[in-house]
Amino acid sequence: MRPESRKPRGGLRYRDLVATPERLALRRRLDAHPRVRLAHLPTPLEPLRRLRERIGGPPIYIKRDDCTGLATGGNKVRKLEFLLGAADADDADHVITFGALQSNHARQTAAACAIRGLACDLILVNRVAWDDPSYETSGNLLLDRLFGATLHRVDDAGEIGELLQRRVAEIEGRGGRVAVIPPGGSNAIGALGYVECALELGEQFAALDHAPSAVWVACSTLGTQAGLVVGLAATAVDSRIVGVDVYSGDAAHQQTALRVLCDDVAKRLGVEAPRADRLIVDSDHLGPGYGIPHEAVFEAIELVASCEGILLDPVYSGKAMAALISHIRSGRCEADRPVVFVHTGGSAGLFAYPQAFLERS
Ligand SMILES: *Cc1c(COP(=O)(O)O)cnc(C)c1O
Asked: Which atom of ligand 1 is nearest to the CA of 184?
């Protein structure tokens, strides 16, 4: 085949065909922000045919943000592109961030710092009461060490403030410059990474027969959901975005925090803040608490692994998938419009929970 004959008619690329004026405008506003390239983008949107055969309901698609490419992937990579872009613009040479002992955010930050040649300190709080020796040695913790991060373990979140102050003073005392990244990378800058994802989704949805009725995603520090909500609203995609709360259990509290973050993101981009009915948080699937998987979570992880070959995780994506499966089984989905699951990653966390899976088999 001659190269010319592969071009679509009129020489247009697929991106041009699906580029609406809203999307082009948002793209321009997003591109005005400093950014470093870390992720493999766009991530695919794939059908989960065999899962649908098993549970019924509408077509199910999965947005593979577990395949963002860095250090076993996950949603923090997109955020870090903008967070480290801002750190770079500020001439930082050292990053400090926070998380639970098995934080995926900490692992992805450590890897991103390794690529960028930045020093990285992780302040990790031992907040999850999970009785498996691997929880304190394997999974994300093992990887943090490989990426060369300096780890600080604390048993009480109250110790963080003083430790942070001390480290910043030490680093600045020897002439370094610190960028402090909030837990989960969730501020208005980090959330821009999910405005990028919303732009990708808008293009990918244009290739489907019907626009999805809903997009389901795990939420804790809410930057992921905020970016999606702002990005999809600004590009006139009417799918509902359902955040499955895996962290607080207090939907009203999460909704208020989401409002604040969405307003911040919208302001930064110069677009309208999303309407209140776009801020949807479902706190009914948390179970015993953050980092504690329950029966439906194990079932969801085993089901998706065994019929699709895709790895979810016990803390975030497994819980969100359990919520989506329960919703589909309840028969409350619109029949002809697909649903979309955003796979935010986290599979490295599986290796912190081996006992629970062994006991089930
Ligand atoms: C951090 C994380 C989330 C939650 O994203 P937020 O932006 O903090 O709400 C979901 N899934 C995985 C695997 C994560 O690591």
From this structure: 8
